[in-house]
Specification:
Its EC number is 3.2.1.21. This protein is α/β, with parallel strands linked by helices. It is built from 23 helices and 27 strands. Bound molecules: beta-D-glucopyranose.
């Protein structure tokens, strides 16, 4: 666990991610920071340097080789050190360390004067090698967009690119050069808290999003001034930790890795991601950080990755805890030999590499390789041409980092609208009429910090629009909103304590001191005076976070009790879910008339949710991950392997693969999501019954809007290999198109199928398309599909 941030100094002006700080302490800290920055500038004899004139650098390889040739061993080792701003060392010491060539980059500072000072320190160094500044820019920067699962629910790559390019622009404006994103770990066990950060369970969808986010964050190489370098994480298989318990071990067959878990990392790298962050977990007995197969054979040799690799936070030292290194010296040796270029948040390289080189256990070549990658990344970030590329000049520094003018609310709202999934809508309960009286209840109805979701690092909850604010704004004077909190997130004080510990300085989960019964009573009274109830329930954002794994997927009991009491009023009940993982909703499915999954919608969430509730926007999101009926059903992913004794609908107890106490299959399948209109799909038409080798066929389908409202839906194409040399999944997503249709409008959608869509990694890990029959399935979710078959010759 990272330590709390020193109170006198906060370069981030953020409140949610390490270092996190209380917004109440913000102003005091801002002035403390500025004092610290000025003081160090005076002591070092530098005021902020003006931006250097751009120096033309044509040949990257020659340039870097020449520079490496001039560096001492200590200077090379210094470049491999990535310092976490704050906890690790005071700013004056840091500036001295930089000038002495003992730091390559920092992360967790998003403040231009601060980073300018550090860059000034680098420019005083012997070789004037620029620093780079990294940050966790995950789903937005100053403007917070929906969390990963929400972004993925949009199935809209333009929207996702918009998030990434907007975040990049804002972060670049805050002097950030690199983000530790995208996070593309496939998650099939929703107990894992980091499920929220990723894009779900499907290799194809997550790969498409990996490409879109890399392009959005980074644009091209070299990275332009208003973009930031992407480093895909966590390489590899972090989402497959056993039991969904964070940091747990991963044991996986190579075939599963290649077919299901590795494609998104590969997609990000092929899209040009400049960096790779290495996972904290072990893989088949070897920690990723010291895993030669992973880092050398696969990443560098097989995939040809040319960028920089970064350890995760403290991961090199953790090699000792994994039990593969007896001391720090051995840990450093294993990591550097394995090609971990940057050591994050520890000084283990700095301490150990000189001795290891001296003894010959590590060669200068090992060091040169790592330093070449680090300098290469700096080159690609454009920093050798201009070390102040994203820092700019002091006169342009923003007076208020969180100023309204720096935000991109329209973009955040647009993406948020698209990120919600309508799970239930009995009796057309939704959309609501604005002229009615609405009882708005629930612990998440007016919780600004939770709107942001986890890893909303530079997001500021004071800028967040809660559902209460959004509903009130939408209703105006036409109707009424009666608010009552109704319940605390949980009545379990132990859990509250844990969540507030997680968030260091700021207790995020605040308990209403009234009794649960009194809170419910107030909510029920509000419900009785209303035409409809909107209950915002789910998880505090810290419940779906790093190190927040759960054993249950139920709503906490405090909220279940509230829902049951609300149901008993007989008023129509709409649940607005805010959560970072699939929940087990069997009970809520029975109790609620409508359920809208909003995940964590980001800064503009309150407005965006109101637009959906009132039908100003027709929901179009589809689940990027299956919802199990209960925690015991995990894993529930749709693209599971075929079995000798599969469960057969309507034939229970016949020695088939099932849990006998519960209905088989997910509560809500992958790809599922309702709309306020209905869409109909025609049968699938294939352009031919056979596909020649190297050829193509086309699958066409007509989709029609059968209802009274305009709407969008996602038409999904799945393929099943009927008989192959190895067991293949029941189906796999291979393509999709999001289409907007007016009432009564229809469109023919065409999908090109070539061999690349039929290929898989066989038992020898060859990427092959095997001849024989394939079923093409097209549907509006992964279960209700129309099917046609063809033969690959
Ligand atoms: C997380 C990474 C993150 C890093 C730096 C680690 O704890 O696992 O995802 O990028 O911290 O903040």
């Amino acid at each position: 666990m990272k330590s709390a941030f020193p109170i006198s100094y906060d370069p981030t002006q953020t409140e949610s991610r390490a270092p996190r700080n209380a917004s109440s302490a913000r102003t005091a800290r801002d002035s403390a920071l500025m004092k610290a920055v000025c003081l160090v500038a005076l002591v070092s004899g530098l005021s902020a340097l003006p931006a250097q004139a751009a120096a033309p650098i044509e040949n990257k390889r020659a340039f870097i080789a020449e520079l490496v040739g001039k560096m001492t061993l200590d200077e090379k080792i210094g470049q491999l050190r990535l310092i976490s701003i704050g906890p690790e060392m005071p700013i004056a010491q840091l500036a001295n360390e930089i000038t002495a060539g003992r730091v390559g980059g920092t992360f967790n500072s998003v403040n231009r004067p601060h980073n300018r000072l550090l860059q000034d320190a680098a420019m005083k160094g012997r070789l004037k090698i620029p620093m780079f500044f990294a940050y966790d820019v995950i789903h937005g920067h100053r403007t917070t967009f929906p969390i990963g699962l929400g972004l993925a629910s949009s199935w809209d790559m333009d929207a996702i690119r918009l998030m990434a390019s907007t975040a990049a622009k804002e972060a670049a404006g805050d002097s950030v050069d690199m983000t530790f994103a995208p996070m593309v770990d496939i998650a099939r066990d929703p107990r894992w808290g980091r499920t929220s950060e990723g894009f779900g369970e499907d290799p194809y969808l997550v790969s498409e999003i990996a490409k879109a986010t890399v392009k959005g964050f980074q644009g091209t190489l070299p990275v332009p001034a208003d973009r930031i370098m992407a480093s895909v994480k966590h390489f590899a298989l972090y989402g497959a930790v056993e039991g969904g318990r964070d940091y747990n071990t991963v044991d996986m067959s190579p075939m599963r890795m290649y077919n299901d878990y590795l494609p998104p990392y590969r997609a990000a790298i092929d899209a040009g991601a400049g960096g790779v962050m290495v996972a904290l977990n072990s893989i088949n007995g070897v920690p990723a950080t010291s895993n030669t197969w992973l880092m050398q054979d696969l990443l560098r040799k097989e995939w040809g990755f040319k960028g920089v690799s970064v350890s995760d936070h403290g991961a090199i030292v953790e090699l000792m805890r994994h039990g593969v290194a007896k001391d720090e010296r051995e840990a450093a040796r294993l990591a550097i030999k394995n090609g971990i270029d940057l050591s994050m948040a520890d000084s283990v390289y700095l301490k150990e590499l000189p001795g290891l080189v001296k003894s010959g256990e590590v060669s200068t070549n090992d060091i040169d390789k790592a330093v070449t990658e680090v300098l290469g990344a700096k080159y690609d970030m454009g920093l050798f041409q201009n070390p102040y590329l994203r820092i700019g000049v002091a006169k342009d520094d923003p007076a208020d980092l969180d100023a309204e003018s720096r935000l991109h609310r329209a973009a955040a709202r647009e993406v948020a609208r698209k990120s919600m999934v309508l799970l239930e809508n009995r009796n057309s309960t939704l959309p609501l009429a604005k002229s009615k009286t609405i009882a708005l209840v629930g612990p998440l109805a007016d919780a600004p910090i939770d709107m942001l979701g986890s890893w909303s690092a530079a997001g500021n909850s004071k800028n967040a629009v809660t559902l209460r604010t959004g509903l009130n704004a939408a209703v105006g004077t036409q109707g009424r909103v009666l608010y009552a909190r109704g319940a605390n997130i949980t009545n379990d004080e132990g859990i509250v304590k844990y969540l507030n510990f997680l968030n260091w300085d700021t207790p995020e989960v605040t308990q209403d001191k009234r009794t649960p019964a009194a809170m419910i009573e107030e909510a029920v009274a509000a419900a009785r005076q209303s035409d409809v109830i909107v209950a915002a329930v789910g998880e505090a954002r810290g419940m779906s976070h790093e190190s927040s794994s759960r054993t249950s997927l139920d709503l906490p009991q405090s909220q279940r009790d509230l829902i049951t009491a609300l149901k008993a009023t007989g008023k129509p009940l709409v649940l607005v879910l805010m959560n970072g993982r699939p929940l087990a909703l069997q009970r809520e499915q029975q109790e609620a008339d409508a359920i809208l999954e909003t995940w964590y919608t980001g800064m503009e969430g309150g407005h965006a949710i109101a637009e959906v509730l009132f039908g100003d926007y027709n929901p179009s999101g589809k689940l990027p991950i299956s919802f199990p009926r209960s925690v015991g059903q995990i894993p529930t992913y749709y693209n599971h392997a075929r079995l000798g004794r599969p469960f057969t609908e309507g034939k229970p107890g016949n020695y088939t693969s099932q849990y006998f106490e519960e209905v088989t299959g997910p509560l809500y399948p992958f790809g599922y999501g309702l709309s306020y209109t209905d869409f109909a799909l025609s049968d699938v038409v294939l352009s031919g019954a056979t596909m020649p080798r190297g050829g193509k066929i086309e699958a066409a389908v007509t989709v029609k809007n059968m209802g009274q409202r305009a709407g969008e839906t996602v038409v999904q194409l799945y393929i099943q290999d009927v008989a192959a040399s190895v067991v293949r999944p029941v189906k796999e997503l291979k393509d999709f198109q999001k289409v907007a249709l007016q009432p009564g409008e229809e469109k023919v959608l065409r999908f090109a199928i070539d061999e690349s869509k039929l290929k898989f990694f066989n038992a020898q890990l060859q990427h092959v398309a095997e001849p024989g029959a394939f079923n093409v399935q097209i549907g509006l979710d992964s279960q209700a599909v129309k099917q046609k078959s063809f033969e690959l010759q």
